[in-house]
Design a protein that fits this description.
6 copies of one chain form a homohexamer. Chain A contains 3 helices and 6 strands. By secondary structure, chain A is α+β, with helices and mostly antiparallel strands. A 5-stranded antiparallel β-sheet of chain A has the order 3-4-2-5-6, with helices on one face. In chain A, a hairpin with a 6-residue loop joins strand 5 and strand 6. The longest helix of chain A has 19 residues. The first copy, chain A, is elongated. The N and C termini of chain A lie far apart (35 Å). At the A-B interface, helix 2, helix 3 and strand 5 of A face helix 2, helix 3 and strand 5 of B.
Chain lengths: 149, 149, 149, 149, 149, 149
Amino acid sequence: MRMVDVGAKDKTERTAIAECWLRMSPEALSRVRESRVEKGDVFAAAKLAAIMAAKQTPSLLPLCHPLGLTSVELEVEAGEGGMHFVARVKTCERTGVEMEALTAVSIAALTAWDMLKSTDKGMCMEGLRLLEKSGGRSGHWKNPAVFRP
Amino acid sequence: MRMVDVGAKDKTERTAIAECWLRMSPEALSRVRESRVEKGDVFAAAKLAAIMAAKQTPSLLPLCHPLGLTSVELEVEAGEGGMHFVARVKTCERTGVEMEALTAVSIAALTAWDMLKSTDKGMCMEGLRLLEKSGGRSGHWKNPAVFRP
Amino acid sequence: MRMVDVGAKDKTERTAIAECWLRMSPEALSRVRESRVEKGDVFAAAKLAAIMAAKQTPSLLPLCHPLGLTSVELEVEAGEGGMHFVARVKTCERTGVEMEALTAVSIAALTAWDMLKSTDKGMCMEGLRLLEKSGGRSGHWKNPAVFRP
Amino acid sequence: MRMVDVGAKDKTERTAIAECWLRMSPEALSRVRESRVEKGDVFAAAKLAAIMAAKQTPSLLPLCHPLGLTSVELEVEAGEGGMHFVARVKTCERTGVEMEALTAVSIAALTAWDMLKSTDKGMCMEGLRLLEKSGGRSGHWKNPAVFRP
Amino acid sequence: MRMVDVGAKDKTERTAIAECWLRMSPEALSRVRESRVEKGDVFAAAKLAAIMAAKQTPSLLPLCHPLGLTSVELEVEAGEGGMHFVARVKTCERTGVEMEALTAVSIAALTAWDMLKSTDKGMCMEGLRLLEKSGGRSGHWKNPAVFRP
Amino acid sequence: MRMVDVGAKDKTERTAIAECWLRMSPEALSRVRESRVEKGDVFAAAKLAAIMAAKQTPSLLPLCHPLGLTSVELEVEAGEGGMHFVARVKTCERTGVEMEALTAVSIAALTAWDMLKSTDKGMCMEGLRLLEKSGGRSGHWKNPAVFRP
């Protein structure tokens, strides 16, 4: 078990985009859509929690490097059957930010979950995956698979 | 937006069980099964990260109450098509530990992800959900839905 | 220097209310009022940051006891000359939550500051003080002084 | 709500200086002056808490970037009517450290508060503001306003 | 790997006392004794760092339970050949605080180390051990061994 | 008390190696050797805890700079009379990582302690010291002293 040595890698701009879905009951989803969630604004809470979680990634995932992040952004939509979350994270460091984007998107979904759990105990997170990454030696990568919730 | 007042609720033993799946390529899965993951022991890392993440839940999910946890446990299996994670969390406090169990299980999966990402960029987390909760006013609840990854 | 021993004190319901003002330029204030702050919703961000900061109090203030909080709430208003923040924190522990309420309110104001600093570098936080506390041996206390920003 | 992209900004030396006042009763102030505070050395505690808080800024203020800090320093004085705190923070990163200096100075004052609250419940923090910032595109800025506590 | 279930244990007052030695060069030790350490007051810094570290124990040691602490105290002395640290920690919870006391005492010594390392690179921490514990099913225990640095 | 200004120092590769011993009873040591520790795999837990602790160093030691680490690694052996821990930490920053290596090694030993304390309350940590450091103005340094546990 070790944090791999990235000292010989270049500092370049690196980006990662991740997504996930939170499937929920029609009742829960309409509360989200109509801003009738008792605990408050789910969209704002998910966005802030995502940004803060991206910064906490190295203290959550044991082998992640502590990194300066230059940008974190979360988009949330109430789609069909549930909410859709997309996180974009950027850095100018020696290693990529896939794990930061994945952490951001999963904590965003769990934040929404926490606010909706009194309405729906049976929610399910799905399709949490990396959509795209760029920068660094391995260059640009796009997830070839299509996910349909 | 507020942390709801649980001051009037009783301190009782409360349990929550959550699960998720991490789907991965056959190559990644056989590395897990044969302990050939370069970064180390995925099972041990996932278990420890899950326990530590359960304790961090209130600093990740904005509206969660800070709680004393009496027990946290993670089971990991290399199943068909991927890894399966189950977290069990207990407390003797005024509110339940669903979010702690869900956080534990998702950080466990992300820890495995981080260790396997050089082999498979296309992994996908699925079926992250609550399986069971007990204790508190709402009593015992079992997720009626069946999830097949 | 020591964290005082509260082992002999009773577990009772304890509440604390704190307030502060963030004075800002008319330009900054009208942006807040008209939701024209580029970084997003100042009210939602301040509320969430306050709740999370209340939970971080023992890791910020060296001599504070780690406590279970049963409730945290923040009210924000765009008043005359600036924004007004009021935090209410509750616990059922052996010691009070004044410091949690004061920390919540100051981090709420700094969160607003961070979102407005590109518009106004000259903001000033004022009147950060305890308004009320109840519970515990010293009973109910109300701040006798009137603060006018 | 988003952490703004600073990837295109230059790494330059950036400094920020912030101040605040903690007004207190003559009794509390003379305890500070004569080192008769039961909980210990208020000056040392405020200084350490300020330095540690500056480092915690990105986990307190949701939209702040995680930054390497090259220097943090706090000056404390027992002045007329209360204590005066000045924090100086430096970095060589892509964005400024105003929020770090403001956070440092406010946590320093709250640390003193915590140590003095058994003597004076009615303390008030005032004049928390940025005094000066330099480095980066916007150059050198000095707060033109004079604050008299 | 699991956090053991303490749900069935009683809430009782529990105490733990731990100690360690930091051996250093005569030059370093005389700087400590004569308050000539450039970075500041080693005694105050060690005390505060110990108290804060005790509170961080569950986020440092993976299998430790999150606990409310009722008291934390550190004594530091400049003895023969080095500094001596003793931490006393108390709780009224379902499990003991040995690890909190040991963590406090080791972070206290490392804090002193950090402040003295420009004078002496060759310092050595020794005799870090539990001196005494009481409360809980196993009752009162005193370390029978004598440690001579 | 201040975090010294390292803004004028060069960014160079810097390495630090630290070690310590955890002396324990033959019974505890044979449990480690034969993987009969009830709480789980001591080696894996110590390694992960060490890596995570290295990253937490600036929030534990008040005057440490927040740093990007490029590599952290822990070796653990069950030797004669106890366990031996060696941590290697690297950075490409303006200041060294001695404190990160020392923190890693001490938290690794405390993690083992926590897992073994039900078998042996009388364990003792010894010989915690810096073995080697390189990089930066002071160049390569090796600890000239020999430590025999």
